[in-house]
From TrEMBL:
<keyword id="KW-0786">Thiamine pyrophosphate</keyword>
<comment type="similarity">
    <text>Belongs to the transketolase family. DXPS subfamily.</text>
</comment>
<dbReference type="Pfam" id="PF02779">
    <property type="entry name" value="Transket_pyr"/>
</dbReference>
<feature type="binding site">
    <location>
        <begin position="153"/>
        <end position="154"/>
    </location>
    <ligand>
        <name>thiamine diphosphate</name>
    </ligand>
</feature>
<dbReference type="GO" id="GO:0016114">
    <property type="term" value="P:terpenoid biosynthetic process"/>
</dbReference>
<feature type="binding site">
    <location>
        <position position="293"/>
    </location>
    <ligand>
        <name>thiamine diphosphate</name>
    </ligand>
</feature>
<feature type="domain" description="Transketolase-like pyrimidine-binding">
    <location>
        <begin position="326"/>
        <end position="491"/>
    </location>
</feature>
<dbReference type="Pfam" id="PF13292">
    <property type="entry name" value="DXP_synthase_N"/>
</dbReference>
<feature type="binding site">
    <location>
        <position position="79"/>
    </location>
    <ligand>
        <name>thiamine diphosphate</name>
    </ligand>
</feature>
<feature type="binding site">
    <location>
        <position position="152"/>
    </location>
    <ligand>
        <name>Mg(2+)</name>
    </ligand>
</feature>
<dbReference type="InterPro" id="IPR009014">
    <property type="entry name" value="Transketo_C/PFOR_II"/>
</dbReference>
<dbReference type="InterPro" id="IPR005475">
    <property type="entry name" value="Transketolase-like_Pyr-bd"/>
</dbReference>
<dbReference type="GO" id="GO:0009228">
    <property type="term" value="P:thiamine biosynthetic process"/>
</dbReference>
<keyword id="KW-0479">Metal-binding</keyword>
<dbReference type="GO" id="GO:0030976">
    <property type="term" value="F:thiamine pyrophosphate binding"/>
</dbReference>
<dbReference type="GO" id="GO:0000287">
    <property type="term" value="F:magnesium ion binding"/>
</dbReference>
<dbReference type="GO" id="GO:0005829">
    <property type="term" value="C:cytosol"/>
</dbReference>
Length: 647
């Protein structure tokens, strides 16, 4: 238990029911205290900072007006919801946020009844909330309200527009709140951002129309069909008068706003006024990401997840990186510039994560050679396919877990046509505190069956650079590179750019007793584990770096199949269908019968914690691998060398 600071109002709020006992005049004070609590907590326990500061007033207003958890609030994306967690019974436990066994990094129905839906990826709220609204209607729960909150650029995702389209044609009373802060993680981009910034509608007009429609319904003059026709007619008149078309009202979705999302008293009034309005509605708020903390307001991207900082001065506590290996993403970003300088066909593509994946390095040095396409992974892939079809060579960088959203695009728009797109899967493997929505657990398993793909994973920074160089050589087709979050292993990471033969692994160490096959950076843990196991067991253990999941190095695998009775495979991905499965299939297809032990991510969703903790939890840390090596060594026949050591 932590020492609780004293707040005049927040200390007495354990649930939204407590919040609703206050009067509206007290809500600004609640907002101030809630904002200070978020700043205090995150200064020493890092997490997503600026986004939640920007939604404090919205969070308070929603829980004040709506009967949560009976009424449903769907957050999109969930890193805006720290204030929501604090107000819904988790304030005392909030110091455990993102820690192993503690509060989850994003809202989760497994954690709280107030968390209505999983929301680690963007743009799903309208679809999910519409489903809840329809369910409430079909179950006769006419008093249940449903609210979807889109912020941090989520409206730029295609799924949001699919949800809007269905919302406009389905009977529902859904409220969609657009938290327009001109931001995703980096600055929002695209026409929708500019449209939302310029959009205006008269609140007085909306209030008059609402009152008139309610009167006409009471008089029996208006029904649902006539109402829709009137809305279309009214929208046409508004468009003519304003000389602009409101995209939402063009879809027969009532539009309110934009209003100041930091005026909590006015926000509660507006929410109360439109709460019982029939039909789908959009409430457009203008907010400031990082609101209430000056450094975050000025530099919202840097303060999205700033790490530890001084809550008074705003000084960030930056780790001294002199003499330690670089981040894999920075090796990627700098190498991409190096390659682009030599190859004019190379362009960069990223869906709203230029700083997160270090594409911003290319953007800074060659502004015309990189594209941030917004939160739109499927579009990023197909856009890259179109570029490749007409002779360019895009490096499409998408986090591994986000690439899941573009699976069909990979197959339909790139692989079938064998187009030369380099897919750079950042954050492959366990990512740590962001938890199961962000772990890059599935990419090897879901990509391996797709024809025409080359799939590779570098063991270190030199291998990443050389594989990037290889991928951009002529006629390589679609090429996947997966690498982890965090730092590599080489301080001296710059090396000559040389081609690696596609489908060619390497033997890192000879051995006669046991073979270990690894892929990717986890091979560094394997190398250390082998050294410890050999010293303790007296066995000779061979180590192979497979490098390529597809195509497999068949010569290497034939060597293993012919010479070893026991084999261990180690991968930083799900054990079902990944590299170990590929090795099993190869051995079976070619009549080899070694006993194969697979080490990888278990068949469950791994929760949040530090990467070190999660490796231990999954039996994939160096000590666990060493123990498994010793277990396998103990099952081998006793050799003359072992007899000699034991005598």
């Amino acid at each position: 238990m932590k020492n609780e600071p004293t707040y005049n109002l927040l200390n007495s709020i354990n649930t939204p029911d407590d919040l609703r006992q206050l009067n509206v005049e007290q809500l600004p004070e609640v907002c101030d205290e809630l904002r200070q609590d978020i700043i205090k907590e995150l200064s020493c326990n890092p997490g997503h900072f600026a986004a939640s500061l920007g939604t404090v007033e919205l969070t308070v207003a929603l829980h004040y007006i709506y009967n949560t958890p009976y009424d449903r609030i769907v957050w999109d994306v969930g890193h805006q919801a720290y204030g929501h967690k604090i107000l819904t019974g988790r304030r005392e436990a909030f110091f455990t946020n993102r820690k192993l066994g503690g509060i989850r990094p994003f809202p989760s129905p497994e954690e709280s009844e107030y968390d209505t839906f999983t929301c680690g990826h963007a743009s799903n709220s309208i679809s999910a909330a519409l489903g809840m609204a329809v369910a409430a209607s079909k179950k006769g729960e006419k008093d249940r309200r449903v609210v979807a909150i889109l912020g941090d650029g989520s409206m730029s995702g295609g799924l949001a527009f699919e949800g809007l389209n269905n919302t406009s044609t389905t009977s529902n009373n859904l409220l969609i709140i657009l938290n327009d802060n001109d931001m995703a993680i980096d600055r929002s981009v695209g026409g929708m951002k500019q449209y939302l910034f310029n959009l205006t509608t008269s609140n007085r007009y909306n209030q008059l129309r609402f009152k008139a429609s309610r009167l006409l319904f009471k008089l029996g003059i208006l029904n649902d069909e006539r109402r829709k026709a009137l809305i279309r007619f009214g929208n046409s008149l508004k468009s003519m008068a304003a000389q602009q078309q409101n995209i939402f009202e063009g879809m027969n979705i009532r539009y309110f706003g934009p209003i100041d999302g930091h005026d909590v008293k006015n926000l509660t009034r507006v929410l109360r006024d439109i709460k019982d309005l029939q039909g789908p509605k959009i409430l457009h708020l203008h907010t400031v990401k990082g609101k209430g903390f000056a450094p975050a307001e000025k530099h919202a991207t840097e303060w999205h997840a700033p790490g530890k900082f001084d809550p008074v001065t705003g000084e960030r506590f930056i780790v001294n990186t002199v003499g330690i290996p670089p981040l894999y993403q920075d090796v990627f970003g700098n190498t991409l510039v190096e390659l682009a300088e030599a190859n004019s066909k190379i362009f960069g593509v990223t869906p709203a994560m230029p700083s997160g994946c270090s594409m911003n390095i290319l953007m800074s040095k060659m502004p015309g050679r990189a594209f941030d396409v917004g939160i739109a992974e499927g579009h990023a892939v197909t856009f890259s396919g179109g570029m490749a079809k007409d002779g360019l060579l895009p490096f499409c960088n998408i986090y591994s877990s986000f690439m899941q959203r573009a699976y069909d695009n990979i197959i339909h728009d790139v692989a079938i046509q064998n187009l030369s797109v380099v897919f750079c899967l950042d954050r492959a493997g366990l990512v740590g505190e962001d938890g199961p929505t962000h772990h890059g657990a599935f990419d090897m398993a879901y990509l391996r069956p797709i024809p025409n793909l080359t799939i590779a994973s570098p063991m270190d920074e030199h291998e990443l650079r050389r594989l990037m160089y290889t991928a951009q050589l002529p006629d390589k087709g679609p090429f996947v590179l997966r690498y982890p979050r965090g730092r590599g292993v080489l301080v001296d990471w710059i090396c000559p750019l040389e081609e690696i033969p596609v489908g060619k692994g390497r033997k890192l160490k000879d051995g006669n007793d046991l073979a270990v096959i690894s892929i990717g950076p986890i091979g560094n843990k394997v190398a250390s584990a082998i050294s410890h196991a050999e010293a303790e067991s007296g066995r000779d253990i061979a180590h192979y770096d497979l490098r390529f999941l597809k195509p497999l190095d068949e010569e290497l695998l034939h060597e293993v199949g012919r010479n070893f009775s026991r084999v261990i495979t180690v991968e930083d991905g799900v054990i079902q269908g990944g590299m170990g499965s590929a090795v099993l299939e190869f051995m079976s297809d070619h009549g080899y019968t070694p006993a194969i032990k697979r080490i990888g991510l278990p068949d469950r969703f791994v929760q949040h914690g530090t990467v070190t903790e999660l490796y231990q939890l999954c039996g994939m840390d160096e000590n666990s691998i060493t123990k498994e090596l010793l277990n396998q060594c103990a099952l081998l026949p006793v050799t003359s060398k072992i007899k000699e050591l034991t005598n």
